[in-house]
Amino acid sequence: MGLKIVVTVKQVPDTHNLSRDAMKPDGTVNRNALPAIFNPEDLNALEEALKIKETLGATVTAISMGPPKAKDVLKECLYRGADDGILISDRQFAGADTLATSYALKCAVEKIGGFDLILCGRQAIDGDTAQVGPQIAEKLNLNQLTCVSEIIEINDQTVIAKRIVEGGYEIVKSRLPVLITILAGANEPRSPSAKRVMAFKNIDSKVCETSYDEVYVEPDSCDMIGFIKEWNARTIDADPSICGLSGSPTKVKKIEGVVLTTGVAKKVENTQAGIADLVHELIEEHIIG
Ligand SMILES: Cc1cc2nc3c(=O)[nH]c(=O)nc-3n(C[C@H](O)[C@H](O)[C@H](O)COP(=O)(O)OP(=O)(O)OC[C@H]3O[C@@H](n4cnc5c(N)ncnc54)[C@H](O)[C@@H]3O)c2cc1C
Predict the structure, then answer these.
(1) Would you state the torsion angle of the CA atoms of residues 80, 76, 83, 185, taken in this order, to the nearest 10 degrees?
(2) Does 87 contact ligand 1 (Cβ within 6 A)?
(3) Which of 158, 270, 285, 289 is 20 to 30 A off residue 236, Cα-Cα?
(4) Preceding peptide of 67 cis, ω within 30°
(5) How far is ligand 1, taken at its centre, from the CA of residue 68, in Å?
(6) Per DSSP, what are the bridge partners of residue 225?
């Protein structure tokens, strides 16, 4: 069966396409005004998992913590080649900072059990903290390789990876199990497979409740394994006092809106003297130099 790989994927507001109503008057993010997208570096993490699946053999489970709509990113994972997805969703998880987020994800990973490799994006484009991956590793007492731009070699015992550090890179080796955070640019994420989209696109209509805690979503009958489970706080044995808002020591005190306005326009002559003046001015104002 090969390696057992867990990939963490987050649905994020598209902060690259901000509109005027992106923030609410109280300073919080207006998620309804922004399209929800697959966190870009999580696509790179998924791609690494799928490449390993193709070369070594592996089962790839994608997990996401978020509201019911976050199931969309798990479906995207199935479309691209993941074997199954788990949505961790519960009102108790709302308002989580990185500490509470990593706690919930760690509980889910423990419930999955028997994993060899956890792959995360380096950071999410909404919070941008890059803390969640390392915190999951810490809580699971796992080795961690962060800011990885290339998995050079992997077998069922060890992995060798290139990680980017300030001013260069390191080649590092770790025993499995290990958690790795993947950088954008590590690979070119594949597109969804048309066959898999056809197989999994109506997955929502196949919800059947098997117990209070677990909801299974079975795909259309096809020769592929693939389903999405929903787990809540009780399913993953999470302690409510360290979940969501109550488990989050981070409190946002104030958010300031920054309005970028155009400054004074100045024409620079396309001559040696004009460019020399511009360079002089930029040095004077400590913009360059
Ligand atoms: C503007 C802003 C500022 C914030 N500042 C802070 C702060 O200073 N301190 C703090 O603790 N929290 C902060 N938060 C909250 C923080 O964004 C959330 O806790 C969030 O759930 C996780 O942090 P992140 O987005 O920074 O993730 P990162 O640590 O940047 O994410 C790294 C990787 O972890 C995985 N991951 C992260 N979240 C999930 C998820 N829900 N499901 C599955 N995988 C996931 C993904 O693979 C992701 O690529 C802030 C949020 C916003 C919007």
Answers:
(1) 50
(2) no
(3) 158
(4) no
(5) 18
(6) none
Q: What confidence tens digit (pLDDT) does each residue in 15-68 have?
A: 877 776 777 766 666 777 788 999 999 999 999 999 999 999 999 999 999 999
CA 42 – CA 85 distance, rounded (Å): 14
Report the separation in Å between the CA atom of 64 and the middle of ligand 1, taken as the mean of its atom positions. 12
Of 12, 42, 64, 97, which is best to mutate to test ligand 1, by the most ligand atoms within 8 angstroms of its C-beta? Answer: 97
Assess contact for 216 and 88: CB atoms under 8 A. no
Domain ranges in the chain? Answer: 3-247
Cβ proximity of 119 and 49 under 8 Å: yes
Task: Determine if ligand 1 sits within 6 Å of the CB of residue 13.
Answer: no
Answer whether 244 contacts ligand 1 (Cβ < 6 A). Answer: no
Q: Which residues contact 96 (CB under 8 A, 6 or more apart)?
A: 65, 104, 243, 244, 245, 247, 248
Q: Which CATH class, in words, describes the domain spanning 3-247?
A: alpha beta
Take atom 3 of ligand 1 and give the residue whose Cα is closest. 127
Mean pLDDT within 168-189: 97
Determine if ligand 1 sits within 6 Å of the CB of residue 250. yes
* pLDDT tens figures, 87-98: 999 999 999 999
Report the range of poorest mean pLDDT among 125-139, 189-203, 221-235: 221-235
